[in-house]
Design a protein that fits this description.
Blueprint lengths: L4 H10 L3 E6 L2 E6 L6 E6 L4 H16 L3 E4 L5 H12 L2 H22 L12 E5 L10 H9 L5 E7 L5 H14 L8 E4 L9 H12 L5 H10 L4 E4 L15 H18 L5 E7 L7 H8 L6 E7 L4 H15 L10 H9 L2 H7 L6 H16 L6 H18 L3 E3 H11 L1 H9 L9 H8 L5 E4 L5 E4 L2 H14 L2 H7 L2 H10 L5 H12 L7 H12 L6 E2 L2 E3 L2 E3 L2 E2 L4 E7 L2 E3 L2 E2 L4 E7 L2 E3 L2 E2 L11 E4 L2 E3 L20 H13 L5 E2 H7 L5 H13 L3 E4 L2 E4 L4 H8 L2
Parallel strand pairs: 3-4, 6-9, 6-10, 7-8, 8-9, 14-18, 15-18, 16-19, 17-20, 18-21, 19-22, 20-23, 21-24, 22-25
Antiparallel strand pairs: 1-2, 2-3, 5-10, 11-13, 12-13, 26-28, 27-28
Helix pairs in contact: 1-3, 4-6, 11-12, 15-16, 15-19, 19-21, 19-22, 22-23
Length: 709
């Protein structure tokens, strides 16, 4: 088989080679951009006579001082693979990435008090443009399926702070480097909230230059688009500090990140794969993101994976899970990956004694970590004083609004914020064991509560968002309202509130009182979430909320009203509802588990509440409607016809956000619209996944014929 000369020339030119035509069916490609010149002599056909002539050309170039090679390829794909492996030092890069993953595992093992790290997949929800019916797969299998498709893919992995985003990113890295069937060399970058530049495009170019210092960035981008360099960007939310702070208009907030998303959109061509992990925000599930996506006109596919609350049994095992159930432990006090890992790895005796007081688990976790450091590093510092040192460090990070810094700067923070305490600590040592101040600071900089970060591990931050969030929450509780309002960012407030999910009620109340004093800085959805997390009940009336992917444990919806709002893909566990507090509220793709209704038999029996595609577990709180039968042998009634035509006017193939549809049909009773959507979904004409509605492609022709579209 003869290799196409034009394709061959284009491929070699991409890598910076000069083309020289030697003889019939032979092409030479000269590389003169390094210290040593090289040449590839490529026979276009595989007969022995052509190969013999190629060898003579090789000798001629070798005599001129070139590193000369005769390269016999099967096809153009073989050419691309060979050049990629050579220029990108493929084998060495894979070894380095493997070491990066193993170093991460070792750090996690250290944080687990020496117990071996084991990745545990979280439950997750999938939202994608095109449903591939693989919804029973585990998280990593699902991701592998998306990455293996021959098309540009943007994969967004969302989770609350401290709920496994970085662990998932490293497992994806490990999966890609284990894949022997595909020649890929991932580019893994961890974004940090520090004092450096925040322009995403330049951050990305810097990462490319650091990863491939000898290569032209245009060549790297070329291979990113070809899919040979999947991008894994961990911590995309670190650059979103302006989003959702004080602006009630989400469209204005979205403007702040649209340029960052455009940088990503411009890379998503051919077979590019870009994976973002991000703290859970409304950015990627709202209408503004849908508008951004629409402007790219299906140039690439988007899949959003939301990591849910951890399943306790998956983490602690069946025996310990049953012991938790038998003691009626409120799961909201332990449903955090850090605490569950701690509970999994302590002895049976410690587990049984500590689970009696779940509201003290956070303190017990810190005590165990700090006590172990005294032994591991020979620290003559009490647990309380260690905690004070790192709380002082967190205080400065909070004021600077950063989470990581350079190693030297971080050591200066430790020293400056704790000078008297460190000098006192030195006096506790005797004789030759007495460390210098610098030695003591060096020891504390390698503490188990801290972690080295960045490409060359030249930066330091706290071991996880949970630890930092607990410290920040305590500092906020001690701070005057004026300082919170002036100096503390939404990002830090959110970090603290998320970590405080597993705090006891007294501590939650203290943080809520501080956060409640600055609600004018926050969007309504943030206020709602903080009320639910910290007060575990409604604290005011709420209007026009869009609540996505939220888990509610033991929440009473009894006092304050919720109006003109929608709950999308939410999970309600042991909640109590009074239908009278809901006005114009819809539940879409939600799950109700062991829930109850007061003052009514059903939650959705009034005209003010509608539910679509919702599921029931151990309760019967939703009414089963008898839909009116169609007349005159028509497939659709009047409202269903309006819905279909509205969806069709956008596209018969693209998905549409359900909120956009509800806004457009605001002249029709919302409950009637929701009932009609439910019926259309039940009959298989549309598919509803979270906030997105799609036509069933197998029903397109039937719809077209019925409505003459």
């Amino acid at each position: 088989m003869k290799i196409d000369l034009k394709q061959l020339e284009v491929t070699y030119k991409t890598y910076g080679f000069e083309v020289k035509h030697e003889e019939e069916n032979i092409a030479s490609f000269l590389f003169k951009k390094s210290r040593y010149f090289g040449v590839d002599i490529v026979p276009l056909v595989s007969d022995e006579e052509t190969k013999g002539r190629a060898e003579k050309i090789k000798l001629r170039y070798s005599a001129l001082g070139y590193a000369s090679y005769v390269k016999c390829f099967k096809d153009i794909r073989d050419v691309e693979r060979e050049l990629f492996k050579s220029f990108f030092s493929y084998d060495l890069t894979i070894l380095r990435l493997k070491k990066k993953y193993n170093d991460f595992v070792n750090k996690q093992t250290k944080a687990l008090l020496g117990n071996k790290y084991e990745y545990i997949e979280s439950p997750f929800e999938v939202y994608e443009q095109f449903d591939n019916n693989n919804n029973n797969l585990g998280l990593l299998e699902k991701i592998k399926g998306i990455i293996s498709t021959r098309s540009p893919q943007l994969l967004i992995i969302e989770a609350a702070a401290g709920y496994g985003k970085t662990c998932a990113a490293y497992e994806i890295l490990n999966t890609l480097t284990d894949n022997k069937s595909e020649l890929v060399s991932p580019l893994f970058t961890e974004l940090s909230k520090n004092r450096g530049a925040k322009i995403f495009r330049y951050i990305l170019l810097d990462e490319i230059d650091l990863e491939f210092p000898t290569l032209n960035s245009e060549l790297v981008i070329h291979e990113i688009k070809n899919g040979r360099i999947p991008l894994i960007i961990d911590g995309f939310d670190e650059l979103l500090e302006k989003v959702n702070i004080s602006d009630s208009d989400v469209s204005k907030s979205f403007d702040e990140i649209e340029t960052m998303l455009d940088t990503i959109g411009n890379l998503l061509e051919k077979n590019a794969k870009i994976i973002l992990t991000t703290r859970k925000t409304a950015i990627f599930s709202g209408l503004e993101f849908d508008k951004w996506l629409a402007k790219w006109n299906t140039k690439f596919n988007v899949t959003r994976l939301t990591l849910k609350e951890p399943r306790i049994k998956d983490w602690v095992g069946t025996t310990r899970f049953n012991q938790i159930k038998d003691r009626n432990i409120p799961i909201q006090y332990i449903a955090n990956p850090v605490l569950l890992t701690y509970l999994k790895n302590i002895s049976r005796e410690d587990f049984l004694s500590q689970i009696i007081s779940p509201d003290l688990l956070v303190k017990q976790y810190f005590d165990r970590m700090l006590e172990r450091e005294k032994e591991r590093q020979n620290l003559i510092i009490t647990k309380e004083k260690q905690y004070e040192i790192f709380k002082n460090v967190a205080k400065l990070l909070l004021e600077f609004d950063i989470t990581v810094e350079s190693k030297e700067f971080f050591k200066e923070i430790i020293k400056d914020q704790n000078s008297k305490l460190l000098e006192y600590t030195r006096t506790l040592y005797s004789g030759a064991e007495k460390p210098t101040l610098e030695n003591l600071v060096d020891t504390l900089a390698t503490h188990a509560l801290l972690d080295r970060k960045g490409r060359d591990e030249s930066q330091i931050g706290f071991i996880n968002d949970f630890v930092l969030g607990i410290l920040i929450g305590e500092i906020i509780c001690e701070s005057p309202v004026e300082k919170i309002e002036k100096d503390y960012s939404y990002y830090m407030l959110d970090l603290a509130c998320t970590a405080y999910k597993v705090q006891n009620k007294r501590n939650k109340q203290s943080l809520w009182e501080k956060v409640n004093s600055v609600t004018h800085k926050l969007q309504p959805i943030s206020i709602f979430n903080y009320d639910i997390i910290l007060r575990e009940e409604l604290e005011r009336d709420y209007y026009e909320l869009s609540v996505y992917d939220t888990t509610f444990f033991n929440i009473p919806f009894l006092k304050h009203s919720i109006s003109n709002s929608v709950f999308l893909n939410c999970y309600f566990k042991a909640c109590i509802f009074d239908p009278i507090v809901f006005n114009g509220v819809s539940f879409v793709d939600c799950t109700f588990d062991a829930c109850k209704v007061e003052n009514s038999i059903y939650l959705d029996s009034t005209k003010e509440i509608s539910s679509i595609k919702s599921k029931l577990k151990e309760c019967e709180i939703l009414e089963h409607y008898d839909y009116h039968s169609k007349q005159d042998n028509h497939l659709f009634d009047e409202v269903e016809e309006v819905i279909i035509k509205e969806l069709w006017s956008i596209s018969s193939t693209k998905s549409q956000h359900i909120l956009k549809l509800l806004h457009k049909l605001n002249t029709i009773n919302r409950k009637l619209v929701m009932q009609s959507l439910n019926q259309l979904e039940y009959q298989g004409y549309i598919q509803i996944r979270g906030s997105q509605i799609n036509f069933n492609i197998n029903k397109i022709q039937e719809i077209r014929d019925e409505l003459q579209l």
